[in-house]
Amino acid sequence: MLKLEQRGGTGHFTDNGLEFTDRFVTKDKQVSGKHKFDKLCSLSEIEHRLTKPATPKTNGMVERVNGTIKNATVKAMTYQNIDEMKQDLNKFLIFYNFNRRHSGLRKEIKVRTPYEALKYWYNLKPDLFIREPDMFRSMVFEGREQCGET
C-alpha cells in the first residue's frame, strides 16, 4: 500500500503513467478523480498535478533514476519470483541512497550520497521535514533486519 504524508502545502507532481492517472483512458482525456492515486492524494489533502504530455524534460531526472534502478536490477538479473525481485530492489535502493556516490549532487555542499544531502538540508531547514534523517535511516535498516537481510 502506498503511504503518502503531507506537511503544509505539499503536492505530488507526476507523469501521466497509468499508475498515477486515468487521464488517457477517459473519453474526454480528462482526469476523473477516481484513480486510486488521486483518491489517496485527496484523502491526505495532497495536491496531485500531472506533467504536460510529451514533455520528457519535465521529469527527465526521475526517468534517469528509474533507468539506473532498472539497469542494476530487473535488466541485470533473473528472478524466480516477485519476492526475490522486491528483495533485490530493496537492497539496491539502500545502496543507491546510502552508499552510492552521485555526481549530480551539488559539490559546494560537500555531500556524496542522497542521504548525506538529506542530512545537510535537514540541518538547514528542519521545519521542512516530517522525520529526522537518522529516524528514516533507522526505519530502513530495522526493516532489513526484520527480514533477515543485515
TrEMBL record:
Family matches, as SUPFAM superfamilies: Ribonuclease H-like
Membrane-spanning segments: none
UniProt domain Integrase catalytic: residue ranges: 1-122
InterPro entries: Integrase_cat-core (IPR001584), RNaseH-like_sf (IPR012337), RNaseH_sf (IPR036397)
Superkingdom, natural source: Bacteria
Gene3D superfamilies in UniProt: Ribonuclease H-like superfamily/Ribonuclease H
Protein name (Swiss-Prot/TrEMBL): Integrase catalytic domain-containing protein
Organism: Bathymodiolus thermophilus thioautotrophic gill symbiont
Lineage of origin: Bacteria, Pseudomonadati, Pseudomonadota, Gammaproteobacteria, sulfur-oxidizing symbionts
